[in-house]
Specification:
The protein has helices at 2-13, 16-43, 50-53, 56-72, 78-85, 90-123, 131-158, 162-187, 220-231, 233-241, 248-272; strands spanning 192-193, 196-198, 204-206, 210-211. The protein is mainly alpha-helical and 276 residues long. It has one domain. A hairpin with a 5-residue loop joins strand 2 and strand 3.
């Protein structure tokens, strides 16, 4: 196992795509925080750092969907078969790949978090939310990145076609993000909407609010949509982006369960994969 990890991490450190993505995230995070500071300075606003700081949570899933298949690309069939011939168990091979992708996801998150924190603390007063809560939010995004890494380790380790794995990972990441945004959008619908009446002069005047047909009232349907928004990685990414701190323990617990569950499922299926 140690030799496998050493070889996988050596490939990780040599990955140009990883370091290019990390550099992009660092510049992106720094620019986002600088924009916030410039807007506050020019318009005499008191914007909070958390209103922009967690924007990277939306991008992490897409970047990991690109990085993990590239990291594991050389492992398809022949490389995996050679490792098992050398005496390594399938569990060790899969766990080494999972830990390598998990390390890549942590590097990507750190490349966004550290510049944003440094510039945000230097140029502004930092977070307006309590510091322990901000720390939990950052830890939550790290857990979320591990879920993405587990998901995008499973796909290339089970599908031998490189082009298919890369395409499937990107499409799945986009699909989960769009579904998460849709779930949160449904939950954010107000119970009523403002109605207007048109006068004889053609002017619109406010009228009594009317019930919103898109509002989800309390009940099983709303609870199901809330569960998906809190527990699926796409819904969590959106909530971290908008700095939604509600149900944070639930989101972090869901990420931990998903990481372990997806990792275990991937290992189970990988043991049954035909490497011949």
């Amino acid at each position: 196992m140690r030799n496998l990890l050493a070889a996988d991490f050596a490939r990780l450190w040599r990955s140009k795509s990883l370091w290019i993505s990390a550099g992009f995230l660092a510049i992106f995070s720094a620019r986002i925080v600088l924009n916030l500071w410039e807007e506050a300075r020019d318009y005499d606003l008191h914007a909070s750092l958390e209103s922009r700081f967690f924007t990277y949570a939306l991008l992490i899933g897409l970047l990991i969907a690109v990085i993990c298949p590239l990291l594991l690309g050389p492992e398809h069939t022949a490389g995996l078969r050679n490792k098992t011939v050398l005496g390594y168990s399938r569990a060790a091979v899969y766990l080494s790949a999972l830990l390598t992708c998990a390390a890549a996801s942590i590097i990507l998150c750190a490349s966004a978090i550290l510049p944003g924190l440094a510039i945000g603390i230097l140029l502004s007063s930092g977070f307006k939310m309590p510091v322990p809560l901000a720390v939990l939010m950052i830890l939550g995004t790290l857990l979320l990145s591990l879920v993405w890494s587990a998901l995008f380790t499973l796909i290339p380790m089970l599908i031998p076609n490189r082009a298919v794995t890369s395409t499937a990972a990107i499409l799945l990441s986009l699909g989960l993000l769009l579904w998460g945004m849709n779930c949160n959008g449904m939950l954010e619908q107000p119970p009523t909407t403002q109605a207007y009446t048109i006068t004889v002069n053609g002017e619109a005047t406010p009228a009594d609010p009317v019930p919103n047909p898109d509002y989800l009232s309390e009940g099983p349907v709303r609870e199901m949509v809330q569960f998906q928004a809190d527990c699926l990685p796409g819904g969590q990414a959106y909530q971290y982006w908008v700095a939604n701190t509600e149900r944070l323990p639930r989101k972090m617990a869901a990420s931990a369960v998903l990481f372990v569950g997806i990792g275990a499922a991937g290992l189970l299926f990988f043991r049954r994969r035909d490497l011949k």
